[in-house]
Specification:
Layout: H1 10-32, H2 39-55, E1 58-61, E2 64-66, H3 71-78, H4 80-97, H5 106-131, H6 138-165, H7 172-204, H8 213-228
Helix pairs in contact: 1-4, 1-5, 2-3, 2-4, 3-4, 3-5, 3-6, 3-7, 4-5, 5-6, 6-7
């Protein structure tokens, strides 16, 4: 859902730019405590995966495009703070080298995909973890729920920004219907891919999955207690 230059007015673009810069600055500080020898390579791979997934986009209409976001996958694998940085780097590269999205809309795109997409996915994932059985097999399902909800949520956040500062002559109702319908479909694909990738890692190396680490630690404590007894 790369937003092009000129789609939102200057005030809205500046506002999202300030918001994005603030959240990214906080994420940089928080990420220092989350990255180590195990998670840093995975964070890099996640960023590459997001870059590849977002290059496969298609026009939704009204000058915007639709594609996978990768926010849920990133958040579940490396945590939400590091996950916020991944799409941000990808969006900067895309705007500078591939003209995918605009430089004046960079703050808007980071807000929609790096903030809304990641943090809505993480919130739904955590809610799913609370409601589902507390076992590793629940992690991919909760991740899929996060992925599904995050995509239309980001699309509707864009519609909200357009309602505040839209600069293109497009009826708000038509934009909302088009963006919502297309991104529900994209959300299904996001959910499937997220579940498959997270599920494969959970089955082989659950210790690398940030969203499953508490379950791994609980299992280790239980094993130690049994051995000690």
């Amino acid at each position: 859902m790369h937003v092009p230059d000129g789609f939102l007015d200057a005030q809205t673009s500046i506002g999202t730019g300030v918001l994005a810069a603030g959240v990214v600055a906080v994420s940089l500080r928080k990420a220092r405590g989350e990255l180590d020898d195990r998670t840093a390579p995975l964070a890099g791979l996640v960023a590459v995966f997001i870059f590849a997934g977002q290059m496969l986009n298609f026009p939704v209409g009204a000058g915007t495009s639709g594609h996978l976001l990768g926010g849920a996958l990133a958040a579940v694998l490396v945590g939400p703070w590091v996950a916020t940085l991944g799409p941000t780097v990808v969006l900067i590269v895309q705007a500078l080298l591939f003209a995918d999205g605009g430089l004046t809309a960079l703050g808007t795109n980071v807000t929609l995909m790096g903030i809304v997409g990641v943090w809505v996915a993480w919130g739904i994932f955590r809610l799913g973890r609370l409601l589902l059985p507390k076992r590793l097999s629940s992690v991919p399902l909760a991740a899929a729920l996060g992925g599904f909800v995050s995509v239309p949520a980001a699309a509707l956040a864009f519609v909200g920004l357009y309602a505040v500062g839209g600069a293109a002559p497009i009826p708000l109702g038509s934009l909302a219907a088009t963006m919502g319908a297309w991104h529900v479909v994209i959300g299904l694909g996001e959910a499937l891919i997220t579940a498959l990738v997270v599920g494969s890692l959970v089955s082989t190396r659950p210790d690398l999955v940030a969203g499953a680490r508490d379950l791994v630690e609980a299992d280790e404590l239980e094993i130690r207690a049994v051995v000690a007894a």
